[in-house]
Write a structure and sequence with these properties.
The chain is of the alpha+beta class. 31% of the residues lie in helices and 20% in strands. It is built from ten helices and ten strands. The chain has a four-stranded mixed β-sheet, covered by helices on one side. A three-stranded antiparallel β-sheet has the order 1-3-2, covered by helices on one side. Strands 8-10-9 form a three-stranded antiparallel β-sheet. A hairpin with a 4-residue loop joins strand 9 and strand 10. Helix 1 packs parallel to helix 3, helix 2 packs parallel to helix 3 and helix 5 runs parallel beside helix 7. The longest helix is centred in the middle third of the chain and has 13 residues. The protein is globular, with a radius of gyration of 25 Å. The two termini are 39 Å apart. 30% of the residues are buried.
């Protein structure tokens, strides 16, 4: 929604952005302020400008904005608005955040430049007409972190995660793991991607600087690696119900589905009918629900 706010701010009419219950609880004041300075009208609910958002756009002008917090979404919203603003729009970030927006806009012909600024960068954009591009979306580095850490801590493992985006500020967790002693290598793939190979081995503690991991998404995976390195945790694969029974933490890798299927000609056999009848009883369904199961259809 934050990116869409920047996009529609350049349109000469009022747009309303509506989200689900979760999205409607997220504050939009971080984008409302700079977009307002550019000439848009952004109206939400309360002091934090909660959705739904009503955005009156058009007649924007560029601003020079220094981000108070590291946020690729806020940066991207301002950049997208700058595509239809008069003058020059500048975004300064003290810590480099995800660069997908800048890369894709440059590929589409936008008048956009990027230069280093301490540990961060300065992004400058001017009004531009974009051209269509043919792009293959690479794998998400944040999602790869969990599988790479699993390969590092599960004894006897070797894990290859292929086709992962290799742009700046997205693979910062890899050198952190390497400093911890992890056997992690980057193998070149098609331009802009790598295959990350992780092999299990002993780990030790290290310090992580904020500029190394500007995205919080990889922190939980690194926390697992740190706990294993300090001998405070082990790692394994199990279903959620078993983890609950033993009081263990649980990080879902995949939604669990269980299907009960039998040949149609056996459906009327007494044992099968008793089993199906048992699953239909309210007490049994309640017990299964408490264990985390949801019966879809009997």
């Amino acid at each position: 929604m934050r990116l869409l706010a920047g996009l529609v701010a350049g349109l000469e009419w009022e747009t309303e952005l509506v989200g689900d219950e979760s999205l409607s609880a997220r504050p939009m004041d971080r984008v409302a302020e700079p977009l307002g300075l550019m000439g848009a009208t952004v109206v939400g609910h309360g002091e934090r400008c909660l959705p739904p958002l009503r955005i009156g756009g058009g007649a924007l002008h560029g601003i020079d904005w220094t981000s108070r917090v590291a946020s690729a979404q806020v940066k991207s919203a301002i950049i997208l608005a700058g595509l239809s603003a008069s003058g020059t729009t500048v975004v300064r970030e003290a810590v480099t955040t995800r660069t997908h927006t800048e890369e894709m806009l440059a590929e589409a012909g936008a008048d956009i430049t990027v230069e280093p600024w301490g540990d961060g960068r300065i992004v400058t954009v001017r009004a531009s007409r974009l051209e269509p591009v043919d792009r293959t979306v690479p794998g998400d580095p944040s999602a790869s972190a969990f599988f790479v850490v699993a390969g590092c801590v599960v004894p006897g493992s070797t894990v290859d995660v292929a086709g992962v985006y290799s742009g700046p500020a997205r693979l910062g967790y890899v050198p952190v793991l390497q400093r911890m002693g992890a056997d992690v290598t980057l193998l070149p793939g098609v331009p802009g991607t790598v295959t990350i190979r992780a092999t299990a081995g002993p780990l030790h503690a290290t310090e992580v600087g904020a500029s190394e991991i500007p995205s919080l998404d990889e922190i939980p995976a690194l926390a697992v690696a740190a706990a294993v390195a300090q001998g405070r945790a082990d790692w394994g694969v199990a279903i959620e119900t078993v983890a609950r029974q033993y009081g263990l933490g649980f990080l879902p890798l995949q939604v669990e589905h269980y299907d009960f299927m039998i040949p149609k000609k056996r459906a009327e056999r007494p044992p099968v009918r008793r089993f199906v009848s048992l699953l239909a009883e309210p007490e049994v369904r309640e017990q299964l629900s408490q264990l985390g199961f949801e019966l879809k259809k009997i």
